[in-house]
Write a structure and sequence with these properties.
The chain is an alpha/beta fold. The chain has four domains: about 130 residues, no CATH class; about 140 residues, 3-Layer(aba) Sandwich (Rossmann fold), CATH 3.40.50.720; about 170 residues, NAD(P)-binding Rossmann-like Domain (Rossmann fold, 3-Layer(aba) Sandwich), CATH 3.40.50; about 120 residues, no CATH class. It contains 25 helices and 18 strands. The strands form four sheets. It has a six-stranded parallel sheet with strand order 3-2-1-4-5-6, with helices on both faces. A six-stranded parallel sheet has the order 9-8-7-10-11-12, sandwiched between helices. Helix 11 crosses helix 12, helix 18 packs across helix 19 and helix 22 packs across helix 24. The longest helix is centred in the first third of the chain and has 38 residues.
Length: about 650
């Protein structure tokens, strides 16, 4: 794909350069009589001009203006000067001249005859070297000074690891003039220059080194984010950072929020134990808050919030999700769909997976999520999607018609090409295409939304890796409000959101994610009170809401129980088979719960426990939904969400 920076000017310059270089080659090879004198100089400059433009187009690292100007002057004056001085004819003279000119940058001049033009080239070569040295010194001292200054003031953001997502987050923070320090050990990282030009400080060092962390003054930062794609590396960075906080000599009331990117659920237990250690240590319990985020999970959540699974689902029809590409994004799309696809009809989610390594990936996936088959049925097709020419051969709709397609392969370009292929075959159902960064294609899709009205793009890192999502938890607002409402209406109150374990936070998040599905079953949707349009929105009062529940309460309660079970199963909880006493409902350590049974078996479980009515709890969740939304600034509106 063409880069967005390849403008019309670049095209014209490249065309001109190609013409000059082609003409030069033709003349040198077939008309040697023009290889001397002014013609040779002109043709040599043409080749040189081509060389410089191509280097610029290929994104040779940019120096400051003085370096660029001095480099250009040396080449443009040195090559023609040596061309006049070197004896001989033909094409090789140009390369001899170019070689002699390059040696000027090493202060090496092989001739005693120095014309004025060569004198200029020689001194500009010296100027180039001096400017390069001074530029390096300036960059080092400036970055050091800025990092020291930010460290003294504090209240800054430290990001460990520089990748595409980290870059987008840093740029988003800089839009609001937040102080940002990024630690990256790869000196050749392509994003370093972008961040520095936008005012962020980049420390080129290892964030596992105490000295580097101290240089970033992590102990006084406002937010600390571990953003590499390696879970183990992020945990190591967390351990190093925590040890610095434990060694601090002064007391502070400032609390640092530490956000760590973790994908594999097997590390959740490690993080929870580490969080307990932080809360039990005198120097970290009041100075360090630990939170986990997962960009792949966030991508899946945002996809289904904007384009829900039920949007094109016919009444009584089971959801059949086709996932093309079963990498980390595809796997989290499956997990999120498994937690959301619970409707009044009680029909189980069916998933078809297409991937060239599907057999291996699904085995690994089932190892991490042991009970996924209790939540959905799956069909796995191991084939390279690039080789598919006829979808009928795959018999995708052998059991159920496809209702939703999500494409997430190796790159934006490949995703788009294959997304178009599937859209052409299934243009009446949603086709979601994963596109992180390809601005040109993304804009084209948005501009042609009427023509491709069932084709959507998702995963834009500018929206996913943002301050609102990662730091301000915009996606968690309703989950926190659910917990607050529970504490307000419960006689015994409850712990604050910050005091909840990761599992219980995620439980509230899963419940919040399903609210829109429940409302959709009643032909309602929710909306912020301050976003209401009186001309378009028909508000439903509490009486109308409860009237709508008549006759369907039991089905909605069943779907809520199925959702609750799916959340536990996808977090590797299992059914507790034996109940030894009336208070023996669950075993947190072994991840066992007696209520992880079908709705029809709940009555028998309730009889064995004291003061427990799981079925009534599910009914209350549905019944109290209106009051919850009203208390937290939402209204219920008639009709499907727009």
């Amino acid at each position: 794909m063409f880069n967005e920076k390849l403008t019309t000017l670049h095209v014209w310059l490249l065309s001109t350069a190609a013409f000059l270089s082609g003409g030069a080659a033709f003349v040198f090879l077939f008309h040697p009589e023009y290889s001397e004198g002014p013609y040779a100089n002109i043709l040599a400059l043409g080749l040189l001009f081509t060389f410089i433009i191509i280097l610029n187009w290929l994104k040779v690292p940019r120096h400051n203006r003085l370096q660029k100007i001095s480099f250009a002057v040396v080449i443009l004056t040195g090559v023609p000067s040596f061309f006049e001085l070197i004896d001989g004819n033909g094409f090789h003279v140009f390369f001899e001249s170019l070689y002699a000119t390059v040696k000027l940058f090493f202060l090496n001049l092989d001739t005693t005859e120095v014309p004025f033009s060569l004198e200029i080239a020689r001194w500009f070569a010296v100027l180039f070297i001096l400017s390069a040295v001074l530029n390096k010194i300036y960059n080092i001292t400036t970055e050091t000074f800025k990092s020291r200054l930010i460290g003294i003031v504090g209240n800054h953001y430290v990001i460990c690891g520089l990748n595409e997502a980290a870059k987008e987050l840093a740029l988003d923070l800089r839009k609001d003039h937040k102080k940002v320090i990024v630690i990256e050990k790869d000196h050749q990282n392509e994003f370093i220059g972008v961040l520095r030009r936008n005012g962020a400080v980049v420390i080129e060092g290892d964030f596992l080194d105490y000295r580097t962390l101290e240089k970033a003054n992590v102990i006084n930062c406002r937010h600390l984010l571990m953003m590499t794609k390696n879970d183990t590396l992020n945990i190591e960075a967390l351990i190093k950072t925590t040890s610095i906080f434990k060694q601090r000599k002064t007391f502070t009331t400032r609390k640092t929020r530490c956000c760590i990117h973790i994908v594999d659920p097997k590390f959740h237990k490690v993080i929870e134990e580490f969080e307990k250690e932080i809360n039990n240590h005198s120097k970290t319990k009041n100075s360090l808050d630990l939170e986990i985020f997962n960009l792949y999970e966030t991508t899946a959540k945002v996809l289904f919030r904007h384009h829900p699974l039920y949007k094109h689902k016919a009444k009584g029809e089971a959801v059949h999700l086709l996932i093309v590409g079963f990498g980390k994004t595809g796997q989290h799309i499956l997990l999120q769909a498994a937690r959301l696809s619970h409707f009044m009809d009680g029909k189980k989610l069916h998933v078809t997976i297409i991937d060239k390594e599907a057999d291996y990936k699904i085995k690994s996936f089932r190892k991490r999520y042991k009970f996924i088959d209790r939540v959905c049925t799956m069909k796995v097709i191991t084939i390279d999607v690039e080789t598919i020419t006829d979808l009928t051969e795959l018999r995708l709709e052998e059991t159920k018609p496809i209702t939703y397609i999500a494409v997430s392969l190796s790159s934006d370009h490949i995703d788009f090409i294959n997304g178009l292929f599937f859209w052409e075959q299934y243009h009446t159902i949603p086709v979601a295409i994963h596109m992180e960064r390809d601005v040109n294609i993304a804009e084209w899709v948005d501009q042609n939304v009427k023509q491709f009205k069932t084709m959507y793009r998702f995963g834009d890192l500018q929206n996913i890796a943002s301050e609102d999502v990662i730091i301000n938890h915009r996606l968690d607002e309703l989950a926190e409000e659910i917990h607050d409402y529970y504490c307000e209406t419960n006689e015994g109150g409850g712990p604050s959101w910050e005091e909840l374990s990761l599992f219980h936070k995620n439980s509230n998040r899963a419940q919040a994610d399903h609210i829109e599905t429940k409302l959709n079953e009643l032909n309602f949707h929710k909306k912020r009170r301050d976003k209401i349009d009186p001309q378009k929105d028909e508000i439903v009062d509490e009486k109308e809401y409860h009237e709508a529940l008549e006759g369907v309460m039991e089905q909605l309660a069943k779907s809520e129980h199925a959702r609750w079970c799916a959340f536990h199963f996808t977090n590797n909880w299992d059914t507790k088979q034996t109940i030894e006493n009336k208070n023996d409902a669950k075993d947190n350590g072994r991840k066992l719960h007696s209520a992880l049974v079908p709705w029809e078996e709940l009555a028998a479980v309730e009889d064995l426990l004291e003061n427990t009515n799981y079925r009534d709890g599910n009914r209350k969740t549905v019944k109290n939904l209106y009051s919850l939304l009203k208390a937290k600034g939402y209204v219920v509106c008639r009709g499907k969400a727009g």
